[in-house]
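Why do we care about 3D structure at all? Because function follows from shape, and shape follows, mostly, from sequence. That is the central idea of this module. The next example makes it concrete: a single protein chain, its amino acid sequence, and then its structure expressed as tokens.
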Amino acid sequence: MLTGNTFGVFIYPALAAVVVVTFVRDDHHRPRVVCMGIFAIYVVEALKEMLFPIPVDGSIARSFASVPFWTHANLVPIRDLLSGAAERGEVIRNILVAVPFGFGAWFVARRPSVAKVAIAGVVASLLVETLQVIIGATIGFMYRVADVNDVILNTLGTLLGIILFMAFAMVFESIDGRIEEPRGRYWSFVRAVTARPIPLRERSGPAPGITRQNSASPFRAPPPTTGQAPTSLATVPAWPDTIRGKHLAHCW
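And the structure:
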């Protein structure tokens, strides 16, 4: 019998070594490295719960030799959930196990969004169910029920985690708005993660530092003051080369 604890004995030392080395070498991204380490621990514990124990004893496989392989698989969605055939405790467990994924993915992904995190949750759940089938085929029998309803419940858990993150972001933004002095790199990291993206319709307005009067072109000459002759475009000095090209995007 291959247990989850045996799996942890092999995976945790390697995980710890990767996190420590990355933390020491990458000083600039240490907050993200810490979050990735915590998220990796969650992933390992979730795999221990959903894939283990694995019966590797051949006598167990022989006892299931007469049972068709797909007997312990459910490919019909929703039916068992509506009929009450699914155990309530199992339903709750499949939802709760994915909540940390929907919450924690925002702290480890480079450019997270609701759609990306939700899709990642679906893919992760499908991967787990596929691994259950592959392991069952390897040992000779379906040692766990491959259920499409598990994917649906895991997705609901991921969405619940996303909602919790949105609520956390709103609370953090409210607290952060009342604090003026710097709070360190970890606080700044959380601030960057919880910052809500600017909608495209808001980005279409004038660039920062440019009023609506002269936002049509950044090269337009400033309006003349009282008693001053209008300035032509020819007399406006050219922009420095340091803000041309790719650096121009940062000015907007």
